[in-house]
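User: Hi! I have a protein structure encoded as tokens and I'd like to know what sequence might fold into it. I'm fairly new to this, so please keep things simple.
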């Protein structure tokens, strides 16, 4: 199947079945989403949703968070991954919002990346979710699932994956595709054991085509038969070699 066809099926399936896919992080405004996304690196959304309500309550504005020390913020996030670094990032991010961006979350991806704790992936999440920009945030799920389905081809880095996805997806679809891929990776196309047999998109998935379809089984059978044939041939050659050696020994005697 051509890549363009996979994209067509992908968009058709998900826009019909998950038209309103959205982030599972809880937030009430752009500032809160920024906090939640910074905290979510290498951590589950479930865990982040447990700690953010008290942060949002006690630090409702960038000014309030900017006035807090990293040590104070640490108390709120000690149960998430990398709390030391993340508390410093949150304090620095809030200070920069106040001092440089007038207390507003910027919409420009380059500006967003100037904030402590905000890399390209986080900047893309904020740009797409808050400002509805056609930005593709590539996390581990997006990277893996896009590659398995065949939406990306030989993409070695998240940036390469992002470039291919944004090149092929229509701009208005990019911000939804990000959630489609994440949710599919989180619940069906699991890293270690993808649920391929029950996956609703297996008919246009490259991984499935290569590993589960009749053609794949036929390929596997043919490879097995070839191997057996080679083994048999090797055994015959070994036998002949042994016989010849035996005969030459007999002759010598
Ligand atoms: S068929 Fe398997 S590999 Fe392909 S998307 Fe579904 S779960 Fe993932």
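Assistant: Happy to help. Inverse folding works backwards from shape to sequence: for each of the 253 positions I chose a residue that suits the local structure. Here it is:
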């Amino acid at each position: 199947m051509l890549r363009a066809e996979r994209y067509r099926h992908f968009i058709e399936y998900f826009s019909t079945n998950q038209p309103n896919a959205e982030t599972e992080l809880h937030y009430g405004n752009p500032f809160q989403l920024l906090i939640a996304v910074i905290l979510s690196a290498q951590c589950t959304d479930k865990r982040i949703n447990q700690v953010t309500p008290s942060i949002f309550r006690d630090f409702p504005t960038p000014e309030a968070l900017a006035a807090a020390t990293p040590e104070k913020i640490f108390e709120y996030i000690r149960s998430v991954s990398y709390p030391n670094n993340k508390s410093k990032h949150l304090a620095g991010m809030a200070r920069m919002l106040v001092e440089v961006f007038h207390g507003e979350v910027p919409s420009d991806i380059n500006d967003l990346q100037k904030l402590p704790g905000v890399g390209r992936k986080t900047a893309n999440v904020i740009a797409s979710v808050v400002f509805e920009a056609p930005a593709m945030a590539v996390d581990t799920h997006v990277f893996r699932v896009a590659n398995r389905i065949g939406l990306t081809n030989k993409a070695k880095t998240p940036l390469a994956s992002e470039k291919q996805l944004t090149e092929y997806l229509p701009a208005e679809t990019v911000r939804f595709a990000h959630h489609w891929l994440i949710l599919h990776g989180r619940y069906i196309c699991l890293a270690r054991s993808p649920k391929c047999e029950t996956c609703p998109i297996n008919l246009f998935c490259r991984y499935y085509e290569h590993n589960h379809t009749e053609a794949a089984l036929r390929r596997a059978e043919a490879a097995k038969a070839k191997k057996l044939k080679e083994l048999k041939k090797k055994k015959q050659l070994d036998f002949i070699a042994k016989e010849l050696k035996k005969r030459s020994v007999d002759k010598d005697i």
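A useful reference point when you look it over: The pocket of iron/sulfur cluster is lined by residues 148-149, 188-189, 194-196, 199, 201-202, 205, 207-208 (CB under 6 Å). Feel free to ask if any position seems puzzling.
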